[in-house]
Amino acid sequence: MAAPLGSDRTAVFCPGRPLMSDHDTDETLEDLPLDKLALDDWHRARGARMVPFAGYEMPIQYEGIVAEHNWTRQSAGLFDVSHMGQLLLSGPGLDTAVEAVLPIDLSTLKPGAQRYSLLLDEEGGVLDDLMVSRLADGSLYLVVNGATKWDDIGTLREALPDDITLNHLDEQALLALQGPKAADALARHVPEAAALTFMKFGRFTLDGHPVQIARAGYTGEDGFEISLPADAAAEIADLLCAEPEVKPIGLGARDSLRLEAGLPLYGHDMTPETSPVEAGLIFGINKRRRTQGGFPGADRIIREIADGTQRRWAGLKIEGRLPAREGAEVFSGSEKIGTVTSGGFSPTLGAPIAMAYVASGHAATGTQLEVEVRGKRLAATVSPTPFVPHRYYRGS
Amino acid sequence: MRYFTDEHEWIDVDGDVATVGITDYAQGQLGDIVFVELPAVGTKVEKGKDAAVVESVKAASDVYAPIDGEVTETNGALEEDPALVNTAPEGEGWFFRITIANAGQLEGLMDEAAYKDFVASL
């Protein structure tokens, strides 16, 4: 297989070095120099298979994608997501300046709370999706996608006034601890973190190091994202993986977990060619902003919210065992009505699942469609997402 | 006699029929296999050309025919249990059987010792 690797923007995590040949035709980033994660040696020592992703050499798997996937759903997995960009924004008039760039309502974002938002271009296309957190001193902490972080920094720097300071926290690593037993494992080291609820965060001490922990993630499970000094990452990763509930989990399972959770992947499920309304991400445009506008692409977004869109992002359950992957065409009878943007085999359901943009008239739950894979038509049914229920902790 | 290709297929020759599968190394690289698409009986395959497709959790990969021939039988067990390719790649997880159209093509393939060295060099 010609390893089509890439970034968050390209399609597939290839299992390894070229073997046979691959159907994927994504651009590769193989010619670009790759950065190493702070945990590079740590991953290799644990038997990780490393692949280029988002400009880094990253662990795609340790023992195997399905085993790691199931372990995360049943226990807890530790993911190294240090390729993502961690940014800090501060300065006078911060909220007004940021609201001119992001469709977020910062008047309702209290210290200790985190919210999903979108970086849009002037036409309302999606440049990135991101998390925005309010720190106690009023500044804002952002987590952006790895493959887009340099572009995002450029976009933000250009759009924000000069007296807003943008710090790239590139000496911070980011670990995600995800799964139903994540809270038990973490509480042995940071008892106060157990009190956090979904999309809340706090600053704590972990093994003597200052960390910022958010109760959030990208698997659909309860869990945490831990921002920590990169030079403490190996020590903390060891400490967490010494807990009997915790194993290291690679990018392969991260992708299959997020697909089951119906969570979009930037560069695949949303791009500059898709609007957040089509993508079903209206929750990323806060209510006040939907009426007041004043952010990039607002005209289109507000119009689409009122009038609807021609296509919508929808879940598909596919009959049989053959997965339909990104790029597969979706049909209603002989009419092509859509394209798969993410697809694969769901270990939890034991069946192929996919996400696709389909013409809005065919997006209702239960609609019978067909997906074409290598000339074969597979029966597919529009399915509600998440495919596997979310289990976020919202308080007892 | 069993031969190996540098594309990580094996071919086991018994008289004028050969059985084809992928190697243990290949299945290890592919990871969990969820579907195998086999050629129809009667298909004429050509050395080095697509003959089957394996789908792992993450990607679809072509499997090439090690030699020219016509498919005489396929492994129906893979339909029910594609994971046989992971658990028994060089046995029960075989893919298909073909006639040997040109026995001379076998000469360019590796034997087990040579394949082992080849994998060690990767």
What topology emerges from the helices and strands here?
The complex is a heterodimer of chains A (396) and B (122).
Chain A: E1 21-22, E2 35-36, H1 40-45, E3 49-53, E4 56-61, H2 65-74, E5 76-80, E6 85-90, H3 94-99, E7 114-120, E8 126-134, E9 140-144, H4 149-159, E10 165-168, E11 172-178, H5 182-187, E12 201-206, E13 209-214, E14 223-229, H6 233-241, E15 246-248, H7 251-260, H8 287-292, H9 298-307, E16 311-318, E17 329-332, E18 335-346, E19 351-359, E20 368-373, E21 376-383
Parallel strand pairs in A: 2-4, 5-15
Antiparallel strand pairs in A: 3-4, 5-11, 6-9, 6-10, 7-8, 8-9, 11-14, 12-13, 13-14, 16-19, 16-21, 17-18, 17-20, 18-19, 20-21
Chain B: E1 2-4, E2 9-14, E3 17-22, H1 24-30, E4 33-37, E5 44-45, E6 50-56, E7 60-64, E8 69-74, H2 77-80, H3 84-87, E9 96-99, H4 112-120
Antiparallel strand pairs in B: 1-2, 2-3, 3-9, 4-6, 5-8, 6-7, 8-9
Modified residues (N6-lipoyllysine) (chain B): 58
Pfam families (chain B): GCV_H (PF01597)
Organism (chain B): Erythrobacter dokdonensis DSW-74
Structure write-up:
Chain A is of the alpha+beta class. Chain A has a domain at 310-396: Aminomethyltransferase beta-barrel domains (Elongation Factor Tu (Ef-tu), domain 3). Chain A contains nine helices and 21 strands. Chain A has a six-stranded mixed β-sheet, sandwiched between helices. A six-stranded antiparallel barrel of chain A has the order 16-19-18-17-20-21. Chain A is globular and about 60 Å long. The N and C termini of chain A lie far apart (48 Å). The model of chain A is unreliable at 1-29 (pLDDT under 50). Chain B is globular. Chain B has 122 residues and is α+β, with helices and mostly antiparallel strands. In chain B, the strands form two sheets. Chain B has a six-stranded antiparallel β-sheet with strand order 1-2-3-9-8-5. Chain B contains four helices and nine strands, in the order βββαβββββααβα. Chain B has a single domain, classed as OB fold (Dihydrolipoamide Acetyltransferase, E2P), CATH 2.40.50. Chain B has helices at residues 24-30, 77-80, 84-87, 112-120, and strands at residues 2-4, 9-14, 17-22, 33-37, 44-45, 50-56, 60-64, 69-74, 96-99. The mean pLDDT of chain B is 95. The longest helix of chain B is centred in the last third of the chain and has 9 residues, at 112-120. Chain A binds chain B through residues 1, 12-17, 19-24, 60-61, 64-66, 69, 252, 255-256, 321-323, 325, 344-345, 347, 352, 374, and chain B through 7-9, 22, 26, 29-32, 34-35, 37, 50, 53, 55-64, 82, 122.
